[in-house]
């Protein structure tokens, strides 16, 4: 999860925007939260209705990557 702080011309923070980190790996696009885990995403960015065995096996392989390798698969956040 990435936090972005929007400030006005005086430097005062008036908005805090939290955005999920989105990744793509082995054909799957998903967001990943350290506490809540992965959420499979559809091509339009919405949540997929199902997450099957192939998806969870892929997430397991992705999680075994180093932090730097995982960061390289990040597409948003």
Index terms:
77 residues; alpha+beta; 4-stranded antiparallel beta sheet; two-stranded antiparallel ribbon; 22% helix
Overview of this protein structure:
- The chain is α+β, with helices and mostly antiparallel strands and 77 residues long.
- The protein has one domain.
- 22% of the residues lie in helices and 40% in strands.
- The strands form 2 sheets. The chain has a 4-stranded antiparallel beta sheet. A two-stranded antiparallel sheet has the order 1-2.
- A hairpin with a 5-residue loop joins strand 1 and strand 2.
- The longest helix is centred in the last third of the chain and has 11 residues.
- The chain is elongated, with a radius of gyration of 15 Å.
Short description:
This protein has 77 residues and is an alpha+beta fold. It has one domain. The chain has two helices and six strands; from the N terminus they run E-E-E-E-E-H-H-E.
Fold topology:
Layout: E1 2-7, E2 13-19, E3 21-25, E4 28-33, E5 37-40, H1 53-63, H2 67-72, E6 74-76
């Amino acid at each position: 999860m990435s936090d972005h702080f929007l400030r006005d011309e005086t430097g005062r923070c008036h908005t805090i925007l939290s955005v999920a980190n989105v990744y793509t790996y082995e054909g799957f696009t998903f967001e990943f939260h350290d506490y809540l885990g992965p959420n499979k995403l559809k091509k339009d960015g919405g949540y997929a209705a199902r997450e099957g065995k192939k998806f969870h096996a892929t997430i397991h392989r992705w999680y075994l990557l180093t932090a730097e390798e995982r960061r390289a698969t990040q597409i948003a956040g």
